[in-house]
Amino acid sequence: MIKLALLLTSFLLLGLNCSAPEVKSNSVGNSKKASTSPTPTDQETKENTEAEMLSGEDHHDGSLTLAYIGDIDSVPALLKVLQDNPPAPDGTMACTTEHAIEALKKITGADPGYTYKKWNAWWQRYQRDQVHSVKKRK
User: Fold this and answer.
1) Residue pLDDT, tens place only, 79-92
2) 67 vs 61: CA distance, rounded Å
3) Which of 28, 53, 114, 134 is the most exposed, having the fewest neighbouring CB atoms within 10 Å of its CB?
4) What distance in Å separates the CA atoms of residue 35 and residue 3, rounded to the nearest whole number?
């Protein structure tokens, strides 16, 4: 319960700095799985958020959510945000993009830059390194 309160407080505080937050869709037939409990677990929330983001929905709030409960499996969803919301040529970016970059930095400990191209290159290298690491252990 405390974790949820902290997450909601963070959303409110960060939301005050955003010029135009995205509106979350409440469409029928969304990709969320039914939870077995009245309150979804962090894992259920993470998986539902990633699925929505990969389908092009909830980029803003999803990035904020994944900054708190995301893990390395959340990277593809956050990369989708960068791909769909690139910085302007002058380097300015929407708060949605900033939230995704901050989530990526927190989750990965990396900081390759501010563009989809740089983060995607990092992700490809990371995945190759993981495969090589597993092969060496065998």
Assistant:
1) 999 999 999 999 99
2) 10
3) 28
4) 18
Structure tokens that stand for 91 in this block: 């380097």
Burial class (CB in 10 A: 0-12, 13-18, 19+), 119: buried
CB-CB contact of 75 with 123 (8 Å)? yes
Distance CA 59, CA 77 (A): 9
| Helices first, then strands: H and E counts in the chain | 6, 0
pLDDT digits (tens, 9 = 90+) for 85-122: 999 999 999 999 999 999 999 999 999 999 999 999 99
The continuous run of DSSP H or E covering 97 comes out as helix 95-108
